[in-house]
Amino acid sequence: MKITVNGNGLEIQDEVKHIKGLIDFLELEDKPLIIEHNQQILQKEEHEKAVLENGDKVEIVHFVGGG
Amino acid sequence: MLKVGNYQFKSRLFLGTGKYPDFDIQKQAVDKSGTEVLTFSVRRMNIYDPSLPNFLEKIDVDRYTFLPNTAGAKDAKEAVRIAKLAAASGRCDMVKVEIIGCNKTLLPDPVETLKATEELVAEGFTVLPYTSDDVVLAKKLEEAGAHAVMPGASPIGSGQGIINPLNLSFIIEQSSVPVIVDAGIGSPADTAYAMELGADGVLLNTAVSGADNPVKMAEAMKYAVEAGRLGYEAGRIPKKDYAVASSPEEGISVGN
C-alpha cells in the first residue's frame, strides 16, 4: 500500500499493518519519536492499535535543538 | 526557588538547545549552566537516515524539565498542535508558546499568542508564552491563565540585550506570575541586568551556543543569573546626580 510519511509518498509491504509495524519497518524503534496518524496524535501505547490503510498520512516528529 | 505552575526550580536560568557547535560542547555547556529547564523544538524526523544522532541521546533526560517551544507555528491552531505533539512524548506538559508574526524581526504575533495561551491553559498545559515587552499584553496573558510570561529583551538571536528596561520593569511590577526574560540576551551583563530589574528568570540560547567558548559562557550565565538575583534581593542604592563621599569627612589630618 502507499502512504504519505512526512510529506513524501512511501510504498510499504502489506505485512506492515499498523503504526508500530511502520516504526519497525523504518528501523526507528529505538528513537524517541512522536506520531501523528491522519491528523490524530498518538500516545505510544496506541501505536499497535493504529491500523494503516492505503492513502494514510503519517507524521513522524521528534525533539530537535531550539530556543 | 522559582515556581512555575506546579514546577519548582532552584536555577533561574532556562537554556535553549539550538545551534551548538556539536553535541559534546552542548552537553558540557548544559552541565556548566546549572540549568534545570531545557527548551526544544518539534520537527519532522529524517526517516531515511535513522542513524543521525539526537541530542536527547547524549544527555540524562531525567535530570531536566523539558520546555518544548511551538516555533514554526504561524497561528494558534498550529501552536496547539505542536504543543500536543510534544506532550505525546510523555516527557512534558510545559510549553513555550512561540508564534512568530514577522519573519524579519521574529517578533511574536500578539493576537495568536493570546489565543493559543487560552486554549493550552484550557487543555491543562503549563503555559509560558513568549511575548514582546508589551505591558498590557503581558497582563492579558496572565489573565488568560499563563503560568509565566516571557517578554523578549530584544529580537531573537540579536544579542542586543535589554532595549526597553522600563517596559520590562512595568511588566515585572504588575505581574503576579513569574516573568522570565526570553530572547535577545547577548552577554552576562544583560542577564544580570534582567535579574536586577526583578525578573524571575532568564531564557537564553544563542548567547551561549554562539559564544566563542559556549561552555565558559554557560558558566558565566549561571553566575550572572545568581549575581543579578542577589543584587535584586539586596536592593541597590538609588542613583544620585552628584558625588557622595564614602570616606568620612571628619578628622582629616592633612591641611589646617
Automatic annotation (TrEMBL), chain A:
CDD domains, per the entry? Ubl_ThiS
Q: Which domain of life is it from?
A: Bacteria
* Entry-linked Gene3D superfamilies: 3.10.20.30
Cross-referenced InterPro entries: Beta-grasp_dom_sf (IPR012675), Mopterin_synth/thiamin_S_b (IPR016155), Thi_S (IPR010035), ThiS/MoaD-like (IPR003749)
> Known SUPFAM superfamilies for this protein?
MoaD/ThiS (SSF54285)
Concerning NCBIfam families, the annotation shows:
thiS
Record's PANTHER family?
A: SULFUR CARRIER PROTEIN THIS
What's the protein name? Thiamine biosynthesis protein ThiS
Q: Which organism is it from?
A: Oceanobacillus sojae
From TrEMBL, chain B:
Q: Which GO terms describe its biological process?
A: thiamine diphosphate biosynthetic process
Localization (cell): Cytoplasm
Q: Specify the superkingdom.
A: Bacteria
Matching entries from Gene3D superfamilies are given as:
Aldolase class I (3.20.20.70)
GO cellular component term of the entry, any: cytoplasm
Q: Where is the active site?
A: 96 (schiff-base intermediate with dxp)
Residues recorded as binding 1-deoxy-D-xylulose 5-phosphate, renumbered to this chain, are: 157, 183-184, 205-206
The answer to whether the entry has keyword Metal-binding is no
| E.C. number(s) listed in UniProt | 2.8.1.10
Q: Which UniProt keywords apply?
A: Cytoplasm, Schiff base, Thiamine biosynthesis, Transferase
The record's section on CDD domains has: ThiG (cd04728)
Tell me what reaction this enzyme catalyses. [ThiS sulfur-carrier protein]-C-terminal-Gly-aminoethanethioate + 2-iminoacetate + 1-deoxy-D-xylulose 5-phosphate = [ThiS sulfur-carrier protein]-C-terminal Gly-Gly + 2-[(2R,5Z)-2-carboxy-4-methylthiazol-5(2H)-ylidene]ethyl phosphate + 2 H2O + H(+)
Record function comment = Catalyzes the rearrangement of 1-deoxy-D-xylulose 5-phosphate (DXP) to produce the thiazole phosphate moiety of thiamine. Sulfur is provided by the thiocarboxylate moiety of the carrier protein ThiS. In vitro, sulfur can be provided by H(2)S.
Query: How does the record describe its quaternary structure?
Result: Homotetramer. Forms heterodimers with either ThiH or ThiS.
Similarity section: Belongs to the ThiG family.
User: PANTHER family from the xrefs?
Assistant: THIAZOLE SYNTHASE
Q: What is this protein called?
A: Thiazole synthase
Give the originating organism.
Answer: Oceanobacillus sojae
The gene name reads thiG
